[in-house]
């Protein structure tokens, strides 16, 4: 007979989640309005209930153990669900007002965010959302945005960063281009093809070279600093470019090049200020983005 699943108290999970996100027991206790000894007891009770060690102390810092890291993602999902239930039950989401600024790349802003924005409008019709579509990294500390969708983790300790998932990408081109220039069957074949650059060609060459794809400036005869414009050039048959599989799947005008190749994998981080824990509107938008983007 299999053992019954472990049971635990949601308050203990909430204490663990706050400690993991804040990085210390004292900060987590302040955030939850608890004393540090109370919070510490709740985290210890969760460890006892689950029979695992969730944190280990490295100097003055708390570090998540492998078991803690695994539990963290599940706890965040529970936290998102609990926040949504509370807002829905109280009708508070309908009353949330103010502005939230989200920064993301032009491609993500144009092709991935609209379904999330439709859902947010239903949840909080009085909320105003501004999308800062930019391919450079906007500074959250300077309040250029409230929430950022990035492919790198920020180093500033005062920001909260959540790894949403690992995204994947392949090379894509329009069928008309491939019909005219042939379909490459290896990385070596790519050196004979035209590429569309997203930003500076030198940066794309530097990124692709370690993969064994050897290109030069001669391969890049067209490009744009605008990701949306560059992607449109690909769809119009000007050449090949790497693209997120989730974005490319929305468009029947493109065909995957080298379909058997291993995907290009890159992280997707959601980042915001510490006031995530005190602002209802930022919490609602952050959790909604996390839920939608994690589904890929």
From TrEMBL:
BP-aspect Gene Ontology terms: DNA-templated transcription
Keywords: DNA-binding, Transcription, Transcription regulation
Gene Ontology molecular-function annotations: DNA-binding transcription factor activity; sequence-specific DNA binding
InterPro entries xref list: LysR-type_TF_proteobact-type, LysR_HTH_N, LysR_subst-bd, WH-like_DNA-bd_sf, WH_DNA-bd_sf
Domain HTH lysR-type: from-to ranges: 8-65
Gene3D superfamilies in the cross-refs: 3.40.190.290, Winged helix-like DNA-binding domain superfamily/Winged helix DNA-binding domain (1.10.10.10)
Record Pfam families: HTH_1, LysR_substrate
Domain of life: Bacteria
UniProt record similarity statement: Belongs to the LysR transcriptional regulatory family.
Protein name per the record: LysR family transcriptional regulator
